[in-house]
Amino acid sequence: MAALAGFEVLQRGGTALDAVETAIVSMEDDITFDAGVGSHLNQDGVVQLDAGIMDGRTSQVGAVAAIERVKNPIRVARHLLTSEHNMFVGAGATAYAQAAGIHLCDPAELIVDRERERWVAYQEQGEPPSEAVFLGGLGKGTVGAVAIDRVGDIAAGTSTGGTPFKPAGRVGDSPLPGCGYYADNVLAGVSVSGHGEAIIRVQLARSAADFCAKLQAPAAAEAALRMLSDRVSGKGGLILIDHQGRIGYAYNTSQMARAFMIEGMGTPEVGI
Fold first, then answer.
1. SS3 letters for 192-244?
2. To 10 degrees, the CA torsion angle through 127, 37, 236, 166?
3. For residue 260, how many other CB atoms are within 10 A of its CB?
4. Which H or E element spans position 89?
């Protein structure tokens, strides 16, 4: 389970960044989710992945968009934190990953039967409307994680294969700092999932973190989701952890899987 994997990193003295990366990798490797292996195919029948991670202590960001042939794009995003760059896209992102020593896979290794069958059906039906994806449960779920470590550093990250049957090259909120994820040691760490085009318009992750300056974590999450709905009629959800380690989440989709674990808990608390 991703929450437990990330928590065990923190217990061993790892950083919030280590924990976020570990938790997201575990979900990228699980075909249940729309991230890494098992992601939705685009209209060309190709898996193109987006991911981003942010360090709340330094405000450094690493992100990739429309990357191909990489099972764990969050690893490429994490590697970028040590570079002079913030984001690479498309073929450039794949080339960066290879130069960084990250294994490139056969594109077919990212495709599962469920998504191949879905792609064949969409060739006849066309791209599904966003309402069907986010309210009807057609999407399998962007993944994300937030963490705070023993020294108070916060990290946040998000990874996705995007929307079902998306146009080639389409990029949503997930790799964009302040939109799909945001981390600030003074405020909070936030990871977002949902209709990327709407989320981008209100910079949902940064907005949720800003709400933490005046509201408790649960109320800040709810306030951010109300803003998404009221201002742009957006659908989505978010998880957050504030600078005191308090947890918040909110969503206005049909469901949102989430889990968290804090010191003193024997097992993670899980909900769908």
1. EEECHHHHHHHCHHHHHHHHCCCCCHHHHHHHHHHHHHHHHCCCEEEEEEECC
2. -20
3. 20
4. strand 87-89
Angle at 234 (CA atoms; ends 112, 34), nearest 5 degrees: 10
Pairing type for strands 61-67 and 143-148 reads: unpaired
Amino acid, res. 47: V
**Structural domains for the chain:** 2-263 (3.60.20.30)
Query: Residue 67's Cα: distance from chain center in Å?
Result: 15
Find out whether 241 and 247 touch, Cβ atoms under 8 Å: yes
- Positions annotated as catalytic residues are 142
Cα–Cα distance for residue pair 39/59, rounded to 1 Å:
29
Residuewise pLDDT in 10s, the chain (272 residues)? 899 999 999 999 999 999 999 999 999 999 999 999 999 999 999 999 999 999 999 999 999 999 999 999 999 999 999 999 999 999 999 999 999 999 999 999 999 999 999 999 999 887 777 655 655 455 568 999 999 999 999 999 999 999 999 999 999 999 999 999 999 999 999 999 999 999 999 999 999 999 999 999 999 999 999 999 999 999 999 999 999 999 999 999 989 999 999 988 889 889 98
Give me the sheet containing 154-160, strands edge to edge.
Answer: 87-89, 61-67, 49-55, 154-160, 143-148
